[in-house]
Amino acid sequence: MLTWHNVWMANHGRELADDVKRVGEAVRSGSQSIFALGVVCAVAVMREGSEVALFMYGLVAAGGSLQLSS
Predict the structure, then answer these.
(1) Which residues of the chain, if any, have pLDDT below 70?
(2) Do 24 and 41 touch, CB atoms closer than 8 A?
(3) pLDDT (0 to 100) of residue 65
(4) Of 43, 41, 48, nearest in space to 21 by CA
(5) The pLDDT value given to residue 13
(6) Cβ within 8 Å of residue 40, ≥6 positions away
(7) Cβ burial 30-56 (10 Å sphere, 16+ → b, else e)
(8) What's the rounded Cα separation, in Å, for the pair 48 and 67?
(9) Contact at 8 Å (CB) between 60 and 66?
């Protein structure tokens, strides 16, 4: 499963990077407003934040501790 995830993310990551570059170029050339680039960045940050929140909720719901023990 992890191998599949790494292979998929390698391909998907390139697609995402290309999309962001295209939006950045469109903003730079003046064909799109800077608002479009802001929306793309905001969605990316919200997606990553929601993943972290769900992961932390899963730890708490499973009865796991968020503190590291030595």
Answers:
(1) 64-70
(2) no
(3) 60
(4) 41
(5) 82
(6) 19, 20, 23
(7) eeeeeeebeebeeeeeeeeeeeeeeee
(8) 22
(9) yes
Locate 28 and state its tokens. 């730079």
Entry field: residues in the chain:
70
E strand spans, 23-64:
none
Q: How far is residue 48's CA from residue 34's CA, in Å, rounded to a whole number?
A: 22
Among residues 47, 50, 25, 52, the alpha carbon closest in space to that of 37 is found at 25
CA–CA distance, 19 with 8 (Å, rounded to integer):
16
Q: CA 32, 33, 36, 38 torsion: positive or negative?
A: positive
- pTM for the whole thing? 0.53
